[in-house]
Design goal:
Helices cover about 20% and strands about 30% of the residues. By secondary structure, it is α/β, with parallel strands linked by helices. It has a 14-stranded parallel β-sheet, with helices on one face. Helix 1 (about 10-20) crosses helix 4 and helix 3 crosses helix 6 (about 95-105). It is globular and about 85 Å long.
């Protein structure tokens, strides 16, 4: 079976398969795609971080794990060669090595000569990758796939932590502490039952730990093959992931006050879900050093006006998703990132956020398909990219900000609601705090558009219209097909981007520059 997935997806799928023999949930998959990027350099950086969580294994253990998950064992010669290669390049680079091996195997379906022996494994590997993509790309899959071939998730057992020092594993002496090869659930619903002394081996399957922490508790359990950890925290509680191996998804479900996650691997997605009353979560990532660290955050039904605080990370990938209980259609969370230079926002759930990041230069929200309500605080001179799939609202910061909006005026853009003046304004993309002559806005449409050149009398007629709907209607006919026109109505300036029809229609797009009385020609561009 020839490869059918796009190269953009391959690094994420290959790494998850090579190390875990499974693939992530849809939300984590999308977040990892953003982190992996689309260039060889960004792929390599992501692979390096992904492999870092397995650094506790020996070179021999790593070669056995990766080659076994690739389906090319038994092969003693190859296993020894990969082990020696890891010794030579350093096992810190095991993620890059795994990606190299997965890519090589994927291309051997029609191999000849000495490599013909890998043809069958290559076919099976590519089938597995295609099935993995179908799983992770499905928004209905809110949990990672089970270990092994893609199929129905097999439930495991529910294991209860006690007030003592618990040791859980498939080899536990007592049946009540035995985990299985399936998707087990480990519960510590009573505050204090999860402790630093607990040692939990989830074995195979997609295992989930759910725990409640006392106020001011400091907990650092030893976790092996526990993929998901969900925490309800008392005020001041701290959970350390420094003893966790294979943790993919770490979330806080509720907090009675400030809470902290520390020792978190950069390959682990950290999130706030179903948060209720809200709270402040401080995340401290392990291994963050240098100018190019990247981390993944997730909001899932964060309804309590939460705040997440992250330091020492230059690139943040933030995914906005629906929660498990779907209590809200909008995630509400403040992001404070003292070292962030770029923040990428993606996902399918509306997001309301204030970003506090003095070093921030880029916000890329082109991958967010729902409405964004964004406010910048403490920033100066930020480039913001949006799409025209929703009625976004952006409040700019200080300095010379640049707003880029793509996909305007076409069937793929959000429909312009032209039933009433009120509905029209509600469906516009709003930019607040825009300073003409300082800030800039760049617009692009499905069909290349150009600026219209209305005369002063035509602009005066538009401004004198009886309603915004009347003004936009007149602006559309004044501009003509595939043209953009800036006009004032009331105290604001609007830019209408017309589609291929002259008359105002639902496939046109409207941008509102709130409070802008006059727009300098040099402050906006279209094309």
């Amino acid at each position: 079976m020839p490869k059918t997935i796009w190269p953009f997806y391959e690094p994420v799928l290959m790494l998850n398969r090579a190390f875990n023999n499974q693939v992530p949930s849809n939300a984590s998959f999308n977040s990892q795609l953003v982190a992996a990027g689309t260039t060889p350099e960004s792929n390599a950086a992501f692979a390096f971080q992904f492999g870092a969580s397995f650094a506790n294994l020996t070179e021999e253990e790593l070669s056995t794990k990766i080659l076994g998950n690739l389906g090319v064992l038994p092969n003693a010669g190859l296993q020894t060669a990969v082990k020696n290669y890891l010794v030579e390049v350093g096992k810190a680079n095991v993620g890059i090595v795994a990606l190299q091996l997965g890519t090589i195997l994927s291309g051997l379906e029609n191999a000849t000569g000495d490599q013909a022996a890998y043809s069958g494994a290559a076919i099976a590997w590519n089938i597995e990758l295609a099935a993995s993509y179908n799983y992770s790309a499905n928004p209905a899959n809110i949990w990672p796939s089970p270990i092994g071939p893609i199929g129905p998730s097999l439930p495991g057992v529910t294991v209860l932590l006690t007030s003592g020092d618990d040791a859980m594993s498939p080899a536990a002496a007592e049946a009540k502490f035995k985990t299985t090869a399936f998707s087990d659930t480990i519960l510590a619903r009573t505050a204090g039952f999860l402790s630093t002394a607990d040692v939990i081996d989830g074995a195979a399957g997609i295992d989930t730990l759910r725990a409640t922490l006392d106020a001011a508790a400091v907990v650092s359990p030893t976790l092996t093959s526990v993929e998901n950890v969900f925490i309800k925290a008392g005020a001041g509680a701290q959970f350390s992931a420094s003893g966790a191996n294979g943790l993919m998804d770490l979330r806080i479900e509720a907090a009675a006050g400030p809470a902290t996650f520390s020792g978190v691997n950069l390959a682990t997605t950290v999130g706030i879900q179903n948060s209720g009353a809200g709270g402040t979560l401080t995340v401290k990532f392990a291994g963050a050093s240098g100018p190019t660290d990247s981390a993944n955050l997730l909001f899932a039904d964060a309804a309590g006006h939460d705040e997440i605080i992250v330091a020492d990370i230059e690139t943040l990938n933030v995914y906005s998703a629906a929660g498990l209980v779907a209590e809200t259609t909008t995630n509400q969370a403040r992001i404070t990132a003292t070292h962030a230079e770029k923040i990428t926002l993606s996902g399918s759930q509306a997001l309301t956020t204030t970003v506090v990041a003095a070093k921030l230069s880029v916000i890329d929200a082109s991958g967010l398909t729902a409405a964004l309500d964004l406010a910048l605080a403490g920033t100066s001179g930020v480039s913001i990219s949006l799409n025209a799939l929703a009625a976004h609202t952006v409040a700019l910061g200080d300095g010379a900000d640049k707003v880029l909006i793509a996909g305007l005026a076409g069937v793929a853009a959000r429909d312009l609601d032209i039933r009433t003046a009120t509905s029209l304004e509600a469906s516009a993309i709003e930019v607040v705090g825009f300073v003409s002559g300082t800030d800039a806005i760049q617009l692009s449409s499905a069909n290349p558009a150009a600026k219209a050149a209305p005369g002063s009398s035509e602009l005066a007629s538009i401004a004198a219209s009886s309603s915004l709907l009347a003004a936009a209607t007149l602006a559309a006919t004044t501009a003509g097909a595939n043209k953009a026109i800036a006009f004032r109505y009331g105290a604001d300036t609007y830019i209408l981007v017309n589609d291929g029809a002259t008359a105002l229609g639902e496939n046109d797009s409207l941008v509102k520059l709130t409070g802008v009385a006059a727009l300098a020609d040099a402050s906006w561009a279209v094309g």
